[in-house]
């Protein structure tokens, strides 16, 4: 979404779903929906490729859902209470969550299985699948009652990262024909359940293994190598355009994505970073995950596979 959002909203502002169904009103609303859709983080083509049939299907469902939601909500919107961009992002997220059902995720997984190993398109679609899983809201939250809220968030974020890395590295092992009730998210959540417990054991072990880093997600199509991790570290350190330094936790410019990512890539644990910055682990890890999602297209563009 950009500066075109406001004029699109003004044009569509006179649209009333109950009394106005003119072509002009429909066109204005369609333009507003298209502008909001520009903020999506999935259903984006890889450079030089068209959207796959699965991506096209998801995109069309998303657009239909968003058109319905915007037409219902536009007359209720209050600019004084909610910034326009926040309103648009909320509706976009709502439409994504409603549209990303198990069948769509399953079809995307099957599409990835058809692509050659280590191909650029496979890598791109794996990134789309990871983002779609997160946006779907279908990741379970197992064993929540066993831990304090802060500690659980620490375990959960690490377990989710490991689960998504597992999905990417083992996507060919997913069998969509296994059992009539076999759902894609059942396969994903089964692994997440196990990894929450595994992370708990490792946090209790004084010799804690190195936890996954951003490289695990940014290099999901193949095992993370030392050179790729180092390449990612150097890229974040060089920080073209200062975009990583400018993204920081509210009122804490010293707690930027650049600072946190470099700390993680240097092997510091969340607890060590938390102690250093004086910020809760749950806040740090949540901020980090949101940034990884935001900067994923940037990493894919500037750190292409060999």
**DSSP summary, beta strand count:** 2
Q: What is Rg?
A: 21 Å
Estimated structural class = mainly alpha
- What low-confidence regions span 5 or more consecutive residues with pLDDT below 50? 205-224
Which term fits the overall shape?
Answer: globular
Describe the strand arrangement of the main beta sheet, using strand numbers. 1-2
H/E element sequence: HHHHHHHHHHHEEHHH
Strand content: under 5%
Global mean pLDDT: 82
Distance between the termini: 32 Å
**What's the helical proportion of residues?**
55-70%
How many helices? The count is 14
Largest sheet: 2 strands, antiparallel
Account of the protein in words:
- The protein is mainly α and 306 residues long.
- It is built from 14 helices and two strands; from the N terminus they run H-H-H-H-H-H-H-H-H-H-H-E-E-H-H-H.
- The chain has a two-stranded antiparallel ribbon.
- Strand 1 and strand 2 (252-256) form a beta hairpin.
- The longest helix is centred in the last third of the chain and has 22 residues, at 281-302.
- It is globular.
- It starts with a helix and ends with a helix.
- 31% of the residues are buried.
- Residues 205-224 have low confidence and may be disordered.
């Amino acid at each position: 979404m950009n500066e075109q959002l406001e004029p699109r909203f003004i044009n569509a502002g006179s649209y009333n779903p109950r009394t106005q169904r003119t072509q002009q009103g429909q066109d204005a609303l369609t333009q507003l929906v298209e502008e909001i859709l520009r903020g999506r983080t999935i259903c984006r083509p890889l450079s030089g490729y068209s959207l796959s049939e699965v991506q096209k299907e998801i995109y069309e469902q998303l657009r239909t859902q968003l058109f319905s939601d915007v037409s219902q909500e536009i007359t209720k919107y209050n600019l004084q209470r909610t910034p326009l961009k926040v309103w648009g992002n909320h509706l976009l997220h709502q439409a994504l969550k409603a549209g990303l059902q198990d069948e769509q995720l399953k079809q995307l997984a099957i599409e990835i299985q058809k692509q050659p190993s280590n191909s650029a398109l496979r890598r791109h679609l794996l990134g789309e699948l990871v983002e779609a899983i997160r946006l779907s809201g279908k990741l379970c939250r197992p064993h929540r009652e066993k831990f304090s809220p802060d500690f659980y968030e620490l375990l959960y974020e690490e377990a989710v990262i490991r689960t998504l890395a597992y999905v990417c590295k083992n996507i060919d092992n997913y069998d969509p024909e296994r059992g009539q009730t076999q759902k894609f998210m059942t396969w994903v959540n089964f692994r997440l359940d196990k990894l929450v417990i595994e992370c708990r054991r490792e946090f209790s072990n004084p010799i804690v293994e190195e936890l996954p880093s951003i490289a695990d997600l940014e290099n999901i199509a193949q095992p993370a190598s030392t050179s790729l991790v180092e390449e990612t570290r150097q890229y974040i350190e060089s920080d073209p355009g200062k975009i990583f330094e400018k993204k920081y936790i509210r009122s804490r410019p010293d707690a930027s994505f650049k600072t946190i990512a470099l700390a993680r890539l240097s092997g510091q644990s969340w607890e060590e970073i938390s102690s250093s910055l004086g910020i809760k682990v749950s806040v740090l890890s949540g901020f980090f995950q949101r940034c990884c999602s935001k900067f994923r297209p940037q990493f894919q563009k500037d750190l292409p596979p060999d």
